[in-house]
Design brief:
Blueprint lengths: L2 H8 L15 E5 L8 H13 L6 E6 L10 H7 L3 E7 L5 E6 L1
Parallel strand pairs: 1-2
Antiparallel strand pairs: 2-4, 3-4
Length: 102
Amino acid sequence: MSADDHAADDHDREAVAIDEFHENSWSVNLEKPRHADDRETVFEEARQAIEATAEGYHVNLVTHGEQGHPGEYLFGRLDGWGADYEYIRQCGCGGHVTRVHV
């Protein structure tokens, strides 16, 4: 992603609706600049991604490294939603992958 892409994303601070239903396993990118300092956007888009995943599949929530380890903020929310999840790994870019089984 170029610096221009980052600058354009900085202006888009609202959560983006995930409107495509996935009947397969997939990943959602929650590490765009708008996610770096906005946990409510991360939570909303993570919830939407889970709801947009068919039963029997999983969605990888790829979260921004600036948010820190998802165990510090996201796992509690996933627990509250009754989600079945596992931490996969930290990416080379500093982000984190959490797999949610639906």
